[in-house]
Write a structure and sequence with these properties.
single chain; about 475 residues; alpha+beta; six-stranded mixed beta sheet; three-stranded antiparallel beta sheet; 16 helices; 9 strands
């Protein structure tokens, strides 16, 4: 599910609400709404009725000028949702987010392969007369929690906010699912599945969960009229209720599954890390034997990857933390080997070099930025400061936001670079920041708990070899 547009409806060239009227007519088109069956709202379901309700509210508060309304568009992928459920989602979103504060009308259109809905609501609050005020960041603060709850209720994917390609709520979980990585919900489910398969009684199930580092609490919900469980995973600060994990993970269903499900898990042996073990194929060129420092990270990645084979034969807290970032561990290994970083000193030198290079690029960009956009840039910054001072009941904020919209089109960022050279510098800075994040992650990981202590050469075969060579052959 994706919110593809968040648009404000401005006054037309004559200063009237013509654009608002056209927006209402468009979303209420009977040919797209099954003859009006897929229309709802608190301001009516017919064009004349809705438009009159919104203009009456404007007249009551003496606010015919400025922005006339707002138009939200919600869309789903083909087959992801039917029109009936889409209608219910739209209805609940409007009732919770707008309530009785704003006149609104919504409609679900079925004229395309994918179901999508439109919401048009008045710019004037009919309770206190204040204008609706949307600024950057308001999506995450105010709209996101509402859409999240509704998506979860109907088992729909989290919202994606299309503007500037920014993602909506639960970004980490959304990206984890998109990239095929694990998230905490999947980890807890897998641990419950294992505990169920390895238990003959409910008490044994709880003991198995606690043995894996979980805190399991049982309670009773009067609202739902049933018993329920909460699972606090090792390393987590907040517990998960059983109903958040899915139907099979509710207390009554877990009890039914115990004794009826059996699973078997196998543990892969730790590899012998030899020359070019890790990165020869993806990097397509040979490397000398890994240093001890590099091999530490390879082992950590391998141990974490083994969670997929058997998550119950390793340290619970550490392996689950690493599992959420297994792709990053893999990236760390590739980075160390690709750049020939064989110890902590090499890593620090690389980081210092990146910092110096980054500062040089920033200095160039700042000078280029001010040289080409001096007046527009400074005016934009002044408007941002002025906007913070405008109180909620002062409609001057609309004029400031409109001026900022015009200026954004002139600025190299984010509306688009006016120079290829400027754009190239930005791309290189982004690449440097990514590389610095990798280094910070490597340094934060520290020594690897899985490294086996070195032993001194004990025979002729190992005599004369370096410490790294001896360790790599073990």
């Amino acid at each position: 599910m994706a919110i593809t547009k968040l648009l404000n409806i401005k006054a037309d060239s004559r200063g009237s609400s013509g654009h608002l009227a056209n927006s209402i007519k468009y979303i209420l088109n009977p040919e797209k709404t099954q003859g009006g069956l897929m229309v709802g709202g608190n301001a009516g379901t017919e064009y004349e009725e809705v438009y009159q309700a919104m203009t009456d509210t404007k007249d009551a508060w003496g606010k015919r000028d400025g922005r006339q309304g707002y138009h939200f568009v919600l869309s789903w992928k083909p087959g992801e949702i039917d029109t009936g459920m889409a209608y219910q989602v739209m209805k609940e979103f409007c009732e919770e987010y707008l309530g009785e504060n704003y006149d609104f009308v919504f409609a679900v259109h079925d004229d395309q392969e994918h179901a999508h809905g439109h919401i048009v609501f008045n710019s004037v609050n009919r309770v206190n007369g204040y204008k609706y005020r949307y600024e950057r960041g308001d999506w995450e603060k105010y709209i996101q929690p509402v859409t999240d709850k509704i998506c979860e209720k109907y088992n729909l994917k989290k919202l994606e906010y299309d503007r500037e390609n920014r993602k909506g709520c639960s970004y980490a979980q959304h990206m984890a699912e998109k990239e095929g990585r694990k998230n905490w919900k999947q980890i807890i489910r897998a641990d419950i599945d294992y505990a169920v398969s390895d238990s003959e009684t409910y008490d044994a199930f709880k003991q198995n969960m606690e043995r894996m580092g979980y805190t399991v609490k049982e309670g009773y919900s009067r609202k739902k009229g049933r018993g329920q469980l909460s699972f606090l995973a090792p390393g987590q600060k907040r517990a998960w209720r059983d109903d958040k994990l899915g139907e099979n993970y509710k207390l009554e269903n877990i009890k039914k599954r115990i004794g009826a499900e059996k699973r078997f898990f196998h543990m892969e042996k730790s590899p012998r890390i030899k020359k070019s073990f890790f990165c020869a194929r993806p990097l397509k060129k040979p490397y000398r034997s890994l240093s001890r420092y590099q091999a530490r990270h390879v082992r950590k990645w391998h141990k974490t990857r083994n969670w997929l084979k058997n998550p119950y034969a390793v340290d619970q807290r550490e392996i689950r933390r690493n599992l959420l970032q297994i792709n990053r561990l893999h990236e760390d290994c590739c980075y160390l080997i690709r750049n020939g970083i064989r110890n902590e000193k090499d890593l620090q030198q690389r980081e210092n070099m990146l910092k110096n290079l980054e500062q040089e690029m920033k200095d160039f960009r700042q000078g280029y930025y001010l040289l080409h956009t001096d007046e527009a840039y400074l005016e934009y910054q002044d408007l941002k400061k002025e906007l913070l001072k405008v109180p909620e009941n002062d409609d001057r904020f609309e004029e400031i936001l409109d001026r900022m919209d015009v200026l954004e089109e002139k600025l190299p960022e984010p509306a688009g670079a006016v120079s290829e050279q400027f754009k190239k510098v930005n791309d290189e800075l982004a690449s440097l920041r990514k590389e610095k994040r990798i280094i910070r992650h490597i340094k934060r990981e520290g020594p690897d708990m899985y490294v086996i202590p070195l032993k001194k050469p004990a025979n002729k075969k190992t005599a004369g070899r370096s410490e790294d060579q001896i360790w790599m052959k073990r």
